[in-house]
Design brief:
The chain is α/β, with parallel strands linked by helices. The protein is built from twelve helices and ten strands. The protein has helices at residues 3-26, 41-55, 70-79, 89-97, 151-162, 178-186, 202-210, 221-229, 267-278, 281-284, 296-301, 310-318; strands at 28-33, 60-65, 84-88, 111-127, 142-144, 172-174, 192-196, 213-215, 234-238, 250-262.
Length: 323
């Protein structure tokens, strides 16, 4: 081969490499913070990424990250370490308004909602032999209050303040992750576990299947005040018969899970992301039992405690979900 032909071949190869790198560089990577692998946030992120990656034709690459939960996800979004996060509606509200846990951080006015997903009842599961029948019965017991930077822990702290309790009201306090708590309950290391989660949930199923347990009512005058005075807490019911040992409905309160980002996400990317989910809604709701009853219009309005992203709003207007 002559020098000229070698040069042309080398040049052609370099062009192909450059073109390949150029195409690759156009791919936008989206990271979504979820929760523990036994919760519902993790499969929620997986379902979203599955649909986005299926239809994006290499424009986007969505990946999920298992995290401690809502508080971590909000912090990660604020720091730019996460593109998106699944968060509880109460902590989305407080982060946006700069209240509660975020009173020292100032308002996170760039925070934006894409859509809400499943409801998340505040769930207390106790050993059947623990003598715990109501939330107030947790006093003097061994209780898992949840891992630091998780939404369940932060919401438990809200209830502790509501009841004017300190940690010393419990016999022993644990900070276990969702993947650890079922085994601890059945090994008789704790009397009760706290979880803010969508149902059915694999961690709760694991515990109720392995030992004698029961769901505990979280209701009464204090809870009535909480739901009446806030926009992000509502009364909730965990249906009877969903888990072994709890045949009757369990009365409690809860929040919603919201897919959250910031105004820094481009309008086009936000538009394409929600389009991927909403145009494949029938497939999406089959990806986890907690999604079974999700309705499109409710996903756009329920539990949204930070403004909709402009890209999401544009899509919802186009399809008539909002005015």
């Amino acid at each position: 081969m002559c020098v000229t032909h070698r040069f042309i071949s080398l040049f052609s190869a370099l062009v192909l490499i450059f073109m390949s790198l150029s195409v690759e560089s156009k791919t936008q990577y989206l990271s979504i913070g979820t929760g523990g692998v036994t919760g519902v946030y993790y499969p929620t992120g997986g379902a979203i990424c599955y649909l986005v990656n299926q239809i994006s034709e290499k424009d986007f690459h969505c990946e999920i990250k298992s995290t401690p939960g809502s508080i971590y996800n909000i912090d990660g979004i604020r720091k730019g370490e996460l593109t998106l996060g699944v968060v509880q509606s109460d902590w989305q509200y407080h982060a946006y308004e700069g209240t509660g846990l975020y009173s020292n951080n100032g308002k996170f006015t760039e925070l934006r909602s894409l859509f809400s997903v499943h409801a998340e009842p505040f769930t207390v599961l106790a050993r059947a032999d623990s003598g715990i029948h109501y939330f107030e019965d947790l006093k003097g017991k061994r209780v898992n209050i949840g891992a630091p930077k998780s939404g369940q822990r932060a919401t438990m702290d809200v209830l502790l303040n509501l009841y004017h309790w300190q940690h010393n009201v419990f016999k022993e306090v644990f900070e276990l992750t969702p993947s650890e708590q079922a085994k601890a309950l059945c090994d008789d290391k704790v009397d009760a576990i706290i979880y803010v989660v969508g149902h059915p949930n694999s961690s709760i199923k694991e515990a109720t299947g392995a030992c004698q347990t029961k769901l505990v009512n979280v209701s009464g005058e204090e809870i009535d005040k909480l739901t009446e005075q806030t926009s992000y807490y509502q009364k909730a019911i965990i249906p009877g018969g969903m888990y072994r040992g709890s045949d009757a409905d369990t009365l409690t309160f809860g929040v919603g899970a919201v897919v959250t980002t910031t105004s820094e996400l481009s309008e086009d990317v936000a538009y394409q992301l929600v389009k991927a989910v909403f145009e494949n809604h029938d497939e999406f709701i089959q990806l986890h039992p907690a999604f079974k009853h999700l309705k499109k219009h409710e996903m756009v309005t329920n539990s949204i405690t930070a403004p909709l992203h402009d890209g999401a709003r544009r899509y919802y207007k186009e399809v008539g979900l909002i005015d």
